Amino acid sequence: MNSSKHSHNPPASGNEFEHEPVPAHRRHSLLSVTLVWIGFPLVVTGGFLGSQLTNALGFSTALITIVIGNLILFGYVGAQSAVAARTGRSFSLLSRGVFGPNAARLVSGFLSTLVVGWFAVQTGLAGQGLHDMLGWSATLSSLVTGVLFTALTMMGVRALSVVGAISVPFFLLMGIAAVAITLSQHDWASITSFAGSPDASALSIGIGITMVISLFIDSGTLTADFTRWAKNPRHALIATASAFPLANGISMILGAIVTAAGTASDGNFAAVVAGQAGWLVPIAAAFFVVNCASVTMHCLYNAATGWSEIAGRRFRVMTILFGTIGTVAAAAGVWDLLIEWLSLLGIVVPGIGGVIIAHFWRNGLTLEPNPRAAMGGWGAAIVAATAANVWAAQLSVAVVAMVAGFVAHWLLDVASVSRTADTQLGTDS
After folding, report:
1. Angle, in degrees to the nearest 10, between helices 44-57 and 59-87
2. Which of 183, 187, 216, 251 is the most exposed place for a label (fewest CB within 10 A)?
3. Tell me: the pLDDT tens digits for 300-327?
4. pLDDT per position as a tens digit, 82-91
């Protein structure tokens, strides 16, 4: 499956196995792999999205939307995670066995570039958070935190586990404190009865589900970069479940609670804690940076892993390159484009995972690509999702894309195998 171009390149310093499968004896413990995934979606960005959904749909409907979206993410990410654990292959290596070497470079490069956008969004968010809480320059803060996040990512997947081990308890303590403060000022009945803001733009449940899915659809599709380190599929599925629905759901629900109560209209529960006393402000600021670090490091890890395999370069070189690009973009303020970013991801990305799931469901762990069926499935998914977005906006375009990619690839793969068999039969006769 690997071309000579890739198989003769040495692995990166620290050996992140971006050019080859992770061997069984180098796999990580269940705790380590779980910390990598749970520390990723347990972030303030989820609180912001939970707030937007609550303002638009009301608390109860937003809660239903969050649960459904995260359960769909578990099925989508979990199916790909199990394959990654069985093969030990990164997304880029797996995609070569589905799309073929040439098309895989396009698909892997596309996703590995998209996550640089997320790195920029979260780095800019960290800079803005430091500006809002401490009065520091947002631009300078973005540059400094971007350099810090890049340096940490260069340490490899182990660094993701360490940051996760710090970020998760920090997040939970801040979240519990915010809820306790909120409930001391508002009763639970008034929170659950919140019907939404009259000024919020109307959303359907389907659009809300797409927003939930889109928040992690890119790195969720790239899950193999993380779960290839798992010792077996069961560990990979447990790690996935820790992220979806658990961590992602918790972060969104926290944002929904403080928004419905009116203690933080934007879902920033860290601000609820910081507002109680001056000495809590630097603690909240530190939490914000650590939390953003968890997201940015995962995204940059995805980008560097994918592009290292594509370009045949070392992991650390790609980390520095894309960390620099993302940091500059963050300082330029791209994080303001979050909603537009989610809309794009919901249409374009889910079909890729649908195709990959269909391939391995139909063919087992066979790494024999059918490029026409794979690219045709992805193309059909984009067309179907775009059509749904234009003519049936109340539906979840992300789900439409997943299903369309799965079905189209399956049918195209069956048809191509049938044609091959018919051709072979004619030749033999």
Report:
1. 140
2. 187
3. 999 999 999 888 888 999 999 999 999 9
4. 999 999 999 9
